[in-house]
């Protein structure tokens, strides 16, 4: 089994006398800044003036321009959207890196795909939580944590690993488990996971199931509960105890259906297409297309996003969720930020 590191294995003293700049205050940024601050670290947030700036001030964190924050910090964590990182790095961070500083990422994309080339005299590592930033924050507040990967790209000071582990402990990952990786492994597995399983795979599966039922004449509300709402409850059981635990809780009829019909839906063809997706990630094809899409001001991203937001499942879901006050929607802010950036 791979070595998994926990809080008791980590001495955070190596990071306690350093200033940490968190660049960006979105999904990951607000979670890292607040968790690190509450773990007793010296944190400054680097931002442009705007919505996030106002939120960070309201949350009581020290906020400065990106350049000022980068200049005064020893450890600079870049938590901007991947597609904007190279520009901000070149304009406001690069010139403020001092010998022995640490340049940190939560995803290896820009270093692995050669969009950011750090100088040789700094540490470069990643601390990548394996979960959405809003849950990194929420679980921390609940006394738990989200697991994280750390990976060292460049160890100039000889202390990169100790600093990375102390950082991971500060955001709460040491309560759940921290694993070593490389920039290549983190980048490729993270992109694959979000495309094939967690985001692309899951949304496509949910929509296909919903559409199949609605097109067969069943009520959209019934289809919504069956294919989307209940998925969370099933995934909770998978999260808590794996496949066997989920199957323990469902009926034997459902379990038999799982065995005989699941592989008819997700079959060898699906796996072959997953391999194609992985190949496009490994060869840099996906990265190149995403970078070019951004250079063109996201024409396809915008068109698809608009169509997805108008899907019947979204309309039905909103109406049903409004009638379930215990289902709280906590995070539209991030996507509003993203669409503002496109305007
Ligand atoms: N989302 C997640 O849960 C995960 C993300 N990651 C990685 O973490 C990194 C951050 O992702 P994520 O948290 O989703 O990012 P977000 O999209 O949530 O980041 C938005 C933040 O970046 C700020 N920002 C955007 N452009 C600029 C700019 N030009 N100058 C200054 N600030 C800017 C926004 O400020 P404003 O309000 O001014 O627009 C906002 O604070 C990425 O590398 C991602 O791959 C890794 C694991 C999970
Ligand atoms: C699953 C999507 C993710 O990789 C994440 C939350 O871990 C992301 O890039 O947002
Ligand atoms: Mg991820
Ligand atoms: Mg990701």
UniProtKB/TrEMBL annotation:
Sequence positions that bind substrate: 251
Annotated EC: 1.1.1.86
Involved pathway(s): Amino-acid biosynthesis; L-valine biosynthesis; L-valine from pyruvate: step 2/4; Amino-acid biosynthesis; L-isoleucine biosynthesis; L-isoleucine from 2-oxobutanoate: step 2/4
Organism superkingdom: Bacteria
Domain (KARI C-terminal knotted) ranges: 182-327
Residue intervals of the KARI N-terminal Rossmann domain: 2-181
Pfam families reported in the protein's UniProt record: KARI_C, KARI_N
UniProt entry tagged with the keyword Hydrolase: no
Protein name per Swiss-Prot or TrEMBL: Ketol-acid reductoisomerase (NADP(+))
Origin species: Halolactibacillus alkaliphilus
Gene label: ilvC
């Amino acid at each position: 089994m791979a070595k998994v590191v926990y809080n008791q294995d980590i001495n955070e003293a190596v990071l306690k006398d350093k200033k940490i700049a968190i660049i960006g205050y979105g999904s990951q940024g607000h979670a890292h800044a607040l968790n690190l601050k509450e773990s007793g670290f010296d944190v400054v947030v680097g931002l442009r003036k705007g919505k996030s700036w106002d939120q960070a001030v309201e949350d009581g964190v020290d906020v400065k321009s990106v350049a000022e924050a980068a200049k005064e910090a020893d450890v600079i964590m870049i938590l901007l959207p991947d597609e904007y990182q190279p520009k901000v790095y070149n304009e406001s961070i690069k010139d403020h890196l001092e010998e022995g500083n640490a340049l940190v990422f939560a995803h290896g994309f820009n270093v692995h795909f050669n969009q950011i080339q750090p100088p040789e005299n700094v540490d470069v590592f990643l601390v990548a939580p394996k979960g959405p930033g809003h849950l990194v924050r929420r679980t921390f507040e609940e006394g738990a944590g989200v697991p994280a990967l750390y990976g060292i790209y460049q160890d100039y000071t000889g202390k990169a690993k100790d600093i990375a582990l102390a950082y991971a402990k500060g955001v709460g990952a040491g309560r759940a488990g921290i694993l070593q990786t490389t920039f290549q492994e983190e980048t490729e597995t993270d992109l694959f996971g979000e495309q094939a399983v967690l985001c692309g795979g899951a949304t496509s599966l949910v929509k296909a199931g919903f559409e199949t039922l609605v097109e067969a004449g069943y009520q959209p509300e019934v289809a919504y509960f069956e294919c989307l709402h209940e998925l969370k409850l099933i995934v909770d059981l998978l999260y808590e105890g794996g496949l066997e635990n989920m199957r323990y809780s469902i009926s034997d009829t459902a379990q038999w259906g799982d065995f005989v019909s699941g592989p008819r839906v997700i079959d060898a063809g699906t796996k072959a297409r997953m391999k194609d997706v992985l190949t496009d990630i490994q060869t840099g094809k996906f990265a190149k297309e995403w970078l070019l899409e951004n250079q063109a001001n996201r024409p396809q991203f915008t068109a698809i996003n608009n169509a997805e937001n108008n899907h019947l499942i979204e309309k039905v879901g909103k109406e049903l969720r409004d009638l379930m006050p215990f289902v709280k929607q906590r995070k539209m802010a991030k996507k509003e930020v993203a669409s503002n950036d496109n305007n």
